[in-house]
Amino acid sequence: GAVVSQHPSWVICKSGTSVKIECRSLDFQATTMFWYRQFPKQSLMLMATSNEGSKATYEQGVEKDKFLINHASLTLSTLTVTSAHPEDSSFYICSALGGFGADTQYFGPGTRLTVL
Amino acid sequence: AQKVTQAQTEISVVEKEDVTLDCVYETRDTTYYLFWYKQPPSGELVFLIRRNSFDEQNEISGRYSWNFQKSTSSFNFTITASQVVDSAVYFCALSERGNTPLVFGKGTRLSVIA
User: Fold this and answer.
1) Residue B11 buriedness (CB in 10 A; 0-12 / 13-18 / 19+)
2) Given an 8 Å threshold on Cβ–Cβ distance, is B98 in contact with A109?
């Protein structure tokens, strides 16, 4: 149980286009999901906290107009990278809070974004 | 502020050697959680362990063991009789509570050579 999926697993796009990444909790409901970003050979850094039915909370330095987060249901959060540029190329990983008391984070497999 | 330090950037060992990955953390909270994750080349994070601050007992799981010492704010991870399949990046992480985001260390890249 407690499986989180991400789609797509990898994507290549041209500079200036927008890319949507989905994060789904497959067998549990998650009112809160987190989005992390990992640049090559670096650590994971929190980008934003996504709460179902409300606006996301972004970490300092993360442009909310560029990284649009929508948590429209208890099982789905989406991250849209708008007007993507090569510097946005990264590994994006989501996690969903589940478990008894919703105190356990379950990570998705990640999405590798390459912007040409 | 919370901080996790993994001083070892890369470690290379020969198969069957034991290896210890160091993790030192900083937090002002009296209650917190510590984690270790393995990240193979595929990128997916593999959960290894979660430990809360009230449980200082060492943990052993097969070839893996963890040494949690609050006195030195350390949560070290030892792999006994390492294998090539252990080659990966290992992250230590800290969270204030179970439902708050994780703060990750920079990771230690372990290479086990046959």
Assistant:
1) middle
2) no
Residue B98's pLDDT is 79
pLDDT digits (tens, 9 = 90+) for B81-95: 999 999 999 999 999
- Please, what is the end-to-end C-alpha distance for chain A in angstroms? 37
Q: For residue A8, give both structure tokens.
A: 């797509």
Which H or E run includes B23? none
What pLDDT, on a 0 to 100 scale, did the predictor assign at position A102? Answer: 73
How far apart CA A51 and CA A59 sit, in angstroms, is 14
Preceding amide of A8 cis, omega within 30? yes
Chain centroid, CA A114 distance in Å = 15
DSSP A35: E
Residues from A contacting B (CB-CB < 8 Å) are: 32, 34, 36, 38, 42-46, 49, 91, 93, 95, 97, 99, 101-105, 107, 109-110, 112
* Cβ contact, residue pair A44, B105, below 8 Å: no
Q: Is A115 helix (H, G, I), strand (E, B) or coil?
A: strand
**What count of Cα atoms within 13 Å lies in the side-chain half-sphere of residue B88?**
20
B42-101 pLDDT, tens digit each:
999 999 999 999 988 889 999 999 999 999 999 999 999 999 999 999 999 999 887 899
